[in-house]
Amino acid sequence: MKKVLIVGAGLAGSLLAGVMAKRGYSVKLVERRSDPRLDQEEGGRSINLALSDRGLLGLSLLGLDEKLQDFILPMKGRLIHTRDGRKELQPYSGKIGEHINSVSRAGLNRRMLNDCQDLPGMEMIFDAQCISADIRNAQATFLDTKSGNEFTEQADFMIGTDGAFSQIRLAMQTGGVPRFNFSQDYLEHGYKEIEMPPRPGGGHKIENNALHIWPRKGYMMIALPNLDGSFTCTLFMPFGGENGFDNLDSLEKVSQFAKKNFPDAYELIPDFAEQYFDNPTGALATMRCEPWNYKGKTLLIGDSAHAVVPFYGQGMNASFEDVYYFDKLMEANNGNTEKVFPEFSKMRKPNADAIATLAIQNYVEMRASTADPLYQEKRELEIELERDFEQYSSKYNLVTFREDIGYSTALKMGQLQDRFLLEMISQNGGSQEGIPRNQIIAAIEKLWQDNMK
């Protein structure tokens, strides 16, 4: 029985471990944190996740796409909160049944680990920090953070699923792989979580099947529903400037800021300012690297290969999709990692770069464009086209609900469609009313024919 060492038992690592165990491998899954199933606290840096079709495709490998239906909350669109108190629902899709799902990161991780625990050949080790790795020999050394002892694990091949600050990637970068390329780009914006509690006696205080957005151009707040009736609100804004984390340095300043910019939410979160100071401020970075593999011995999957900012809700989905295609390649190549690893990297790298670009672009869209009249006209038109023409999918739809195409195609064609629709609306006096729908569809079909040859 071949041995695989998986470093990192987060979402990607947990799914991958289960998939490899089902394939008959002896799996050793090692994680620096304590077993999350023993600690139910999530607070501070969790950022609720949006699970969509690409992620469900990956979860289907373990049958978890069906089992999670009682564990997720559907979100049918963005509910926009304006400064003057108006609310507007912008549906995610005009097609029946298409929505994204709010899911707890820690809760999903616990669920996956529980499902993997008893699979044949599975061994899980927690409280073990990776301190060095030999990627050429699929070997890593760990520090037992409880006892202080070091130990080494070796396998036939090793996969790094240890997140954005991956030790396995670092070993590749610092001499393990010749001519290894790496870039790390921080946004000038960060994030902070604030919890909106449930109603007294239970239930959500605001609409629970939508992702709420308070767009304020240079910054925003979003809120995702939780099963217990609470919402995880996340404030995204610059570190510097008047409306920045560095300037909001007193309870009074934070209270005034929240009351002015998010008045309806502020009324529902009595300890908004206190939570602001209790919870940490997180940074947001995009990380790219190449190559993702060393021969048939070591591979990067998920955030360790392609960390992205969270504004398209696709970080987890992209990682699960990684596992799905990795599994398909292992099947097609009879587990020959010398073939699978480079082919996997070649297949997934362009799509990882595309979703990184899309995620940064979507931050501007969420915090500014969603409140722009021209954008709203475009979204109304897109929802109508999706509803009435089966062949049409907006850029958001291509990214989120079209797991049959890659992110790179979604980026390319989504941008072309956006430019075309915005130009038509602008030429029509800023309104989508009266533009012949059949003419639009014919033009967009030609766009696809001309650009996807």
Compose a concise summary of this entry.
The chain is of the alpha/beta class. It has helices spanning 11-22, 53-59, 64-67, 105-117, 167-176, 251-261, 263-268, 272-278, 303-306, 315-332, 337-367, 373-388, 395-401, 407-427, 437-451, and strands at 3-7, 26-30, 49-51, 73-75, 77-81, 87-91, 100-103, 122-125, 128-134, 139-144, 150-154, 157-160, 181-196, 211-215, 220-225, 231-238, 282-290, 293-294, 298-300. The protein is built from 15 helices and 19 strands.
Report on this model:
- The protein is an alpha/beta fold and 453 residues long.
- Among the domains are: 221 residues, FAD/NAD(P)-binding domain (3-Layer(bba) Sandwich); 80 residues, no CATH class.
- The protein contains 15 helices and 19 strands.
- A hairpin with a 5-residue loop joins strand 15 and strand 16.
